[in-house]
Each structure stands twice: as structure tokens, then as C-alpha cells.
Amino acid sequence: MNPQPSDAATPVVSDFYDRFPYPGDPLQDGPPPGYNWRWCLESVLAAVHGAVPSSADETASPKILDAGCGTGVSTDYLCHLNPGAEVLAVDISAGALELARERLRRSGAADQVKGLRQEQRSLLDLQGEGPFDYINSVGVLHHLREPLEGLKALESLLADTGLIHLFLYADAGRWEIHRTQRALSRLGAGCGAEGLRLGRELFEVLPEGNRLRQNHEQRWLIDTAADANFADMYLHPQETSYDLSRLFGLIDAAGLQFAGFSNPAVWDLNRLLAGELLQRAEMLPQREQWLLVEDLDPEISHFEFFVAKRSVRSNVWEDDAVLLQAFGRRQSCLWGWPSSSLLGPDLEPIALSESELALLEAVEQRPETCLGELEFGPETASVARGLLSRRLLLLEAIRT
Fold first, then answer.
1. Which of 38, 39, 314, 393 is placed for a possible disulfide with 77 were both Cys, Cβ 3.0 to 4.6 Å?
2. 216: buried, middle or exposed (CB in 10 Å: 19+, 13-18, 0-12)?
């Protein structure tokens, strides 16, 4: 007999995902398509710390936890993007895990890592596991009855120098979703097949100019094409969302440190303001700037971010002499390499200059040679910084 789960909502949520295993991505043979740099530990370390550990200091087999793995999409990427790692993937839904095991079997994920376990367990009940160098928990904590207890549980499993990647719902950008959820609840739609039928019918019968229908058709129609994805958005029995202030309160209460957004472009004031207004905004403390972005963009539907046990200071490589002593690595999350025309870490189009392409090729061919000894002359530092700014070049922490 399975032990009683620590969260009273767990059986309800587990039953829901047994009916609607999420995410509803199709199964396929071979590795997962493309990449997601947020599931590549090397890329994450570079984004958060501004540097990756030197090859001498790297953990031989980093331990990774996929806490709430669902149908295994995230676990598949975690295995393929972190070869040699030890991966534990857990979920409370037997139905979702069945699909996850089949997905990873067909992709050959287990062949990429030192160890892979896929187990039906709650993230609240993982005592004795870890510590983990990286914990991925995307779209999970906001479905617990007590998200703070979930975050505290993850904190207890994290290595002192480890990182957690989280994804939690935001209030403002889910305004229409929340109203649709409440409407279906009032109509007694339920969380099963009838709710799915009635939910889809609702968007067909609402007037074309209705805000809820427009929001669904313009923003979420493709994302919710799969029944499991539609149900997860509009029929879920247990959900919490946050504004930015409450989010930082949650992080503080768990004894963790905010380590940066994993979608930093969303929080860039330059996409919203210009001129004097931008100048005034840039004078605000960093957290106030983020709150201003939240005020100005009501379509932010989620927060995706990293947290750590310790305060994080990022290496900015301002000193040319220090920069040229560093050892470089090519960003592994590139599509189309080797070429001067690529898709970057966020699948954005990238055009490399001749010197940028040459430097990346030299770094890849001579990993044990520091930048200053690659014989690129006085332009090396400026070319390297251009690549760093687009996260195409990763630098190792200075070897001692």
C-alpha cells in the first residue's frame, strides 16, 4: 500500500493527471526535437553565474531532479542535454509516468546518462535523496495545496551550490483563464470528459467579440489543441497564482535566494519604454524595475526563474586581461552549427561575423587554450564580448 501523501491535494491532482496526462506532446522515436537551454546545466550555470566551472572543478556526474516530470518531456531533454548525469524523475500520476517511461525508452534517454530513475513519488516525500546540483520543477508547485511546503522540500534536497528552476503562474496574464475556470465551475462542468466537452463548446458559443473567447483564440488556441493541455489550463482542480511581490515573499519564506529570470528579455524595460520614461525607470532599484514591468505588461502569464541557497553574484568579465585568461566553450544549445547562420539559445535567428565564427571554431578545437593565446590579436576581447552578450560563448571560471 502506498503511504499517505504529504499534501492532501495530491490524490485529486494525481487522478486529474491520470485522466489527462500532461503535457500532451506526442511520442516519437529518437532524441527530442531541438533543445531548451534551461534544461542544459552548463548553459544554466553560464546564465546565472556568468561562468561555468572549470573542467578541473566540474562534478563528474551532476545529480539532477525533475520534480513533477509529467509525461517526461522535460526529463527527455534533461537526459539528452546533460550526458553523463544522474537523473531522478518523479511524478504523482501513474498515467503520466507510463507515458514518460515510453517516451524516454523510444528516445534512448537512458543511454545518454549515468543513471536514470523514473518513480511515482511526490516531491514532498523524497527524504534521503540528493543533494541535487540542479532541480527542475516547472509548472508544479502552483498545483500543491501549500506551494511553500513544496518549495521548502526542494530547498532541503538542493546542494549548497545548486540551482532550482521554477515556473509559477502569474495573476495578471491569467485573468481571462481564471474567469473561464470559474465559469465552468459554476456550470458544474467538472474535471473530466464532460468538462472538456463543455469547455471547448464554451469558446464556440461565446460571441466573437467576447474577451474570454478572443484571449483563448489569439493566445492559447494552439497551446491547448491537445485535450490534456486544454484540461490543464481550464479544468485543473487545484491552482495558485502570484504577483511579483508575493512571489518574492514565497522565495524568502523558503530560505532561498532569487538568482535571475530564465526569460530575462520579458523583464527588459527597453521593450516597453523609451526616452525620459526609460531614463527614469532605469534609476529605480532592480526589483522596482521588475515591478514596473509587471505593472506595464498585463499579459505576463507566468514567472520562470532560478533560485539558489546562496546569494549569487554574476561574473561580468569587465577586465580585458582577466577575460583573455579565461577558457572558452561554445554554447551547446545552437541549431545549425557549424555555420554563420544559426538559431541561438532561445531559438532566435543569429548571424555570425567571420571573426565570431572563427573564434567559436577555435574555442571548440582548442578547449585547453585560453582566449588570449588563440592568436586572434587585439580584437579577441571585443569579439568574445559580443559572443558573450548573446550567450554563444561560455567562459570557464578562472582556473587556480
1. 39
2. buried
